Amino acid sequence: CPYRILDDIGGAYAMGAFFGSMWHFVKGWRNSPRGASFAGGMEQLQVRAPIVGGNFAVWGGLFAVFDCTLSGIRQKEDPWNSILAGAATGGLLAARAGPKAAAKNALVGGVLLALIEGLGIMITKVLAPPMPSKDDLKHGDPTAPPTQPGLSPPVAFPVFDK
Questions:
Q1: Is 76 exposed, middle or buried (CB count within 10 Å of its CB: 0-12, 13-18, 19+)?
Q2: Cβ density class 107-145: b for 16+ within 10 Å, e for less
Q3: 35-39-41-46 Cα dihedral, nearest 10 degrees
Q4: Ranges 13-17, 127-131, 147-151: which has the least confidence
Q5: Taking phi first (over 0 means left), then psi (-120 to 50 degrees means alpha), and beta for anything else, what does residue 150 get?
């Protein structure tokens, strides 16, 4: 799990820096005086994008630490680990603002991760191939090894008369 934590920190930094670059470039572009919009966008991008990336990295690192810890304690990988890790991350990041703010942000983090996990499960179920019916299984076991070479059953090729 240590490698996963480092991987998540790097991925979160990259994502935060990328989207922060776009966000702050547009913000700098719009808030610059006429004729200096590109320079203003580039200045805001250079100043603010690494900060956004760092904030994303902190969030991603804490989330990964909590997720790995919960996986180790519970000895199972399921959506509850991510939901609880999101709640713990939100609460810990807001702990300096007091217990009320920590509880509120923990709730927001847990609900946000529950929505993300639920959406992921829903997409998986929608895109998964349908379960074979009893009629499909009558033709043979789909998990049995093939009895003929090739990937599919033999096909009769058309014969053309001259």
A1: exposed
A2: eebbeebbeebeeeeeeeeeeeeeeeeeeeeeeeeeeee
A3: -170
A4: 147-151
A5: left
CA distances (Å), origin 6, targets 2, 3, 44, 53, 58: 6, 5, 28, 14, 11
Q: Which amino acid is at 84?
A: L
Give, to the nearest 10 degrees, the angle between helix 79-93 and helix 37-74. Answer: 120
- In angstroms, the CA 70 to CA 77 distance is 9
Tokens standing for residue 116 = 């993300």
> Could you give the dihedral angle defined by the CA atoms of residues 97, 103, 108 and 113, in that order, rounded to the nearest 10 degrees?
110
Q: Report pLDDT digits (tens) over 4-40.
A: 899 999 999 999 999 999 999 999 999 888 889 999 9
146 pLDDT higher than 70 = no
pLDDT confidence of 148, banded at 50, 70, 90?
A: low
Question: What is the model's pTM?
Answer: 0.72
Question: What radius of gyration do the chain's Cα atoms show?
Answer: 26
Q: How many CB atoms lie within 10 A of CB 55?
A: 15
